[in-house]
Amino acid sequence: MSDTPVIFKRTKVKIKTNQRAREESVQDAQEQKFQSIEDEQSPSAIASKFKNKARHRAKPKPTLSFGAEQESNEESFEIKKSSLSQKLTLRQHPTYSGGGEIRTLPSSLDQASVSSLATSGPVYDETHLNELRANTPSSRSSRLKGNAHDDDSLTNSESGDLVMESLNDFDARVAAIPSQSFVLAAKEKRERLRTSGVASPHADEYISLSLAKRDEEYQGPHPESRLMREEDDLGEGDDDFAEYTSAQTRITLGKKARKVEAGRLREEMQDLIADAEEVDEETQEWEQAQLRRSGLNPDRDPSAPTTTPIYKPMPIPTPTEIPSLDSTVKRISQVMASLVTAHAQNTTSISTISADLVQLDDRETELREIITRAEKKRSWFADFREWLESVATFLDEKFPQLEQLEDEHVSILKERRDMIRARRRAENEDDLSMFLGPLPVAPQAGPGELDEMGRILPRLNPEVVRDDRQSARAARCALRRKNARQDDDEEGYSTDATLPPSDAADFLAALGQLSRKRDEVLSDVMANEFKDPGLGIGLRFAGWRKRFDDSYTGAWGGLGLVGAWEFWARLEMLGWNPFEDLRTLDSFHWYNNLYKYSRPTHSEEEEEPQLGPDGDLVSAVISTVVIPRLSKLIEGGALDPFSSNDTRRAVDLTEEIEVSVERNNHRFQILWKIIYGIFQDAVNDMMSCQDPFLAQDKPPFHPEAISARRRLLARQGKLMTNILQWRRHTNSMFGIDEIVKSLLVNCMLPVAKTGWEVGGEVCIRRVAQQFPIELATPRTKAQLGISDS
């Protein structure tokens, strides 16, 4: 034994209810096992067992219970035995053998052997072996051993009661071996009964398959049919095992419910695992002590010697010397100093913690304010987003109508331009035919032009048509001189872009109808914020900029405002022809509203208010709305290249746009190129008109030849003046110099040479006064009479 003292310590562990319940279930199972072993050998127990089974089968337990059955079946108080006591009882049982096995009782007293319980097994001597050989049958029994407990021990009497057969008859019937003739007779009788289909239950050969009477056995809810129905599952004993099956399981619906159910299952599994792993140390220690006391420890090696622990007391510590007064005072002083230091540190910590608490309170207040502002911001933006969606729906419905009206306006201008261009070309051909001769008339190959009824229209005489055009031109010139009070206007120098009275009336009617359609676009709108953008999107975006400046600037709110304001700007400019309506851009409402919006702060001391964070939004609208609209109008025929007023108006418009938009702007460059294309088309049309006449080289005599040549040169000179005026504004961009040279060399000089002495030289000298010297070649200078000095 070691010198270390043995100390006995009793550990107290809390036993859970489920652990004790599990031990009690194990004890009940073992007691049932021992009871079954005892009852297996008793014939009376077998009879009572089957009788109870038949009674329960005849009267099934109902599903519903009203309390009376529970009160009658209350469990009686039973003494619970521990596992150790059960083992001791098992050892004392007469059927127990060493090693934990249970011996089966013999079926007869002849096979039983009287032996002491202390012996480990039966003694196989010569006498016992002879007895075993005598009792062993030499052939197979007439009845199956598996049905011995069903057919051999029990029979049905005529009154329906179970009658126990005597053991002697049982043993005699088991030992009897039927002969071959008996077996053949029994087989023939069974075949005869099977064929006839009649069998008497009271006959000696009748073997009942059930231990209860047929009329007393429960036949189910539908005795007339053996088919099972859905409702037959009720009352079949499923409720008894509902705890161990899925009978009480509910199907969870929803993600949250499934999550809760899964958590509950996990907790139950964890509890079961914890219960299985739990060890009751107190109970285990008590059982081991009882085993040691009884001397029946199965784990101990029998050959190992038994040892008894020897109690050894704890050693007494060595006595220490009593401290002196000085050392005690010194130690107390040190403790007091450490306490003072600790107090100072704690005071400092308290001050620091107090300051931290104040900071945390301030931070909490600040965070609460941030959260409050964030919530207000969220609610405001939610309202703002909903309003923007309504504006988007409004624009999706109205924009197609606006675009359709804009295309209609452009088509009206194109139709007027085509009419004026055709009449002007016809007048030029008339003047060319007077001093260069008419063009030869080509023979008509087809049937000619047809009217609405399919009849061939007679061809008009060219001379008569020419006289009619000259008369109409003279009338228009007289009316224009009368209205403008210009008697000294040179013939041919006027633009003469006036439509005939009937066509002019149709043109004005089309413009009036277009104006009415424009007013009908917003006729079904009742809210003022959708009628006037200054009351709608202007106020909304201004509130956004004022409340949340950082998000407004980061989201480029100004450009969003311009995109939404585009509809109202285009609707206001619908029907506006800048070459007839001399209103400037700053006269429109959208211009004034955006100008004020772009300058939110206005001081009386400052002449020009400062721009806001968005910059000048007017320039953005001009770039995205005004310039594309002007490009379509000019390309559709709003600009007349032969009109000096239109040319001056084009120069004024481009200068006004240039104040807000830079020259290198992409859309601005496109506008200039379109105006350049208008002048180029006019020069090309003039060249294609006179080249066939100049190719004849057979000038006839006509009394109106001189005046016709002067009119033609006057028109070409006016076109030259307009092109040079545009060139001075654009600084020779897009090849405008080539147009000037082509008009002078290919159009004016050939016509002037046909009548140089009778008016051609005068017209060329007039052009030479304004022709740029840097564009004239030496030959052109000689023809124009321009000196190098």
UniProtKB/TrEMBL annotation:
Q: Name one GO cellular component term.
A: U2-type post-mRNA release spliceosomal complex
Polar residues bias locations: 82-95
Pfam families, per this entry?
NTR2
Which segments show compositional bias classed as Basic residues?
Answer: 50-60
Where exactly are the transmembrane stretches of this chain?
none
- The organism's superkingdom is given as Eukaryota
* GO BP: any one term: spliceosomal complex disassembly
Q: Where is this region: Disordered?
A: 16-107, 121-159, 278-318, 476-500
Task: Name its cellular compartments.
Answer: Nucleus
Recorded GO MF terms: DNA binding
Keywords associated with the record: Nucleus
Principal place where this protein is found?
nucleus
Protein name per the record: GCFC-domain-containing protein
